[in-house]
Amino acid sequence: MGLKAVSSAIISFSLLLWLASTAKAQSNGVFDVTKYGGKEDITEALTNAWKDACASTNPSKVLIPSGTYSLRQVTLAGPCKAAIELQVDGILKAPVDPDQFSGGHWVDFSHVDQLTLSGSGTFDGQGNVAWSKSTCSKDKNCEGFPMNIRFDFVTNGLVRDITTRDSKNFHVNVLGCKNLTFQHFTVSAPAESINTDGIHIGRSTGIYIIDTNIGTGDDCISVGDGTEELHVTGVTCGPGHGISVGSLGRYPDEKPVSGIFVKNCTISNTANGAPSKVKISDVSFKNIRGTSATPVVVKLACSSGIPCDKVELADINLAYSGSEGPAKSQCSNVKPVISGIMSASGC
Ligand SMILES: *[C@@H]1O[C@H](CO)[C@@H](O)[C@H](O)[C@H]1NC(C)=O
Ligand SMILES: *[C@@H]1O[C@H](CO)[C@@H](O)[C@H](O)[C@H]1NC(C)=O
């Protein structure tokens, strides 16, 4: 009986323990973070629960039950072996100090197919301190604070019911995604918050934003380069700077934007529009109502020499709430096809 026997005994003992703990942590495909030791700070528990769920060959769900938790920066990465859901019923609080992050995000879903993010919970970015330090209202190349949620290369996904609050930067960034739906989603931040775009989309195809409520300090939805087939339906935007399409051409190699369909939306307090520097085609705004605090309620600004065509406005009923005359629309380098109600003359 030598050293060898002793060490093999230890190995089998620890293996048994590991089996026992996995069996306890998941039941019927549900991986509950509180069974992974998640109490106040759930960063490690969520990371471990995600890893186990992602390795499951059957559809799985990671559950964050109701309660209030701290969560540090995390990346929830795929590819996973089967469909995976993260159900957040709790309130997740980000670290207040923006210096505790690297890489521009708080929570990042990366390379996941068949992802569902669901639940009555909230991602609270606690952005107040960061906004007070932000130089972004003066400097377009300002330091990027972390965004609440990034979806990078997510395919066939659904985000349902979740709330994102007070992000330090954009609330949601969608990059390289295909077939991703946001439904009954809520974005909430004060009108004074800096650079807090609701949902920013770039280089993605087949994005659906449905019955969603966005109130924030910057664009409710901003559509960046390489976006194709974006459907925005039943969205309420306000406070916020409306829905912006195009790109300022800050980066090399930007791709055209095409197939943007905005329908049945309510917008209040719009203010928008530096000219887009990418090619834009097939954009329609239909059945848009609401009020604006500035007299220019519709602003379509394209750059001269860059194609900007097949733009359609139908049933635009936006009122100006101030006293500088009637609501107006402004179009530069674009001739939209207008039909139905058009409450703002000019274009
Ligand atoms: C898009 O994703 C949803 C949700 O996963 C899925 O149900 C649907 O089949 C996908 N659509 C296509 C065309 O793949
Ligand atoms: C338009 O959107 C509102 C929500 O803002 C919804 O209640 C209504 O059913 C939608 N109408 C149509 C025709 O889709």
From TrEMBL:
Gene3D superfamilies: Single-stranded right-handed beta-helix, Pectin lyase-like. The active site is at H241. InterPro entries: Glyco_hydro_28, Pectin_lyas_fold, Pectin_lyase_fold/virulence. It is found in: Secreted, Cell wall. The keyword Hydrolase applies. Keywords: Cell wall, Cell wall biogenesis/degradation, Glycosidase, Hydrolase, Secreted, Signal. One of its GO terms (biological process) is cell wall organization. Pfam families: Glyco_hydro_28 (PF00295). Belongs to the glycosyl hydrolase 28 family. This is Polygalacturonase. It comes from Salix dunnii.
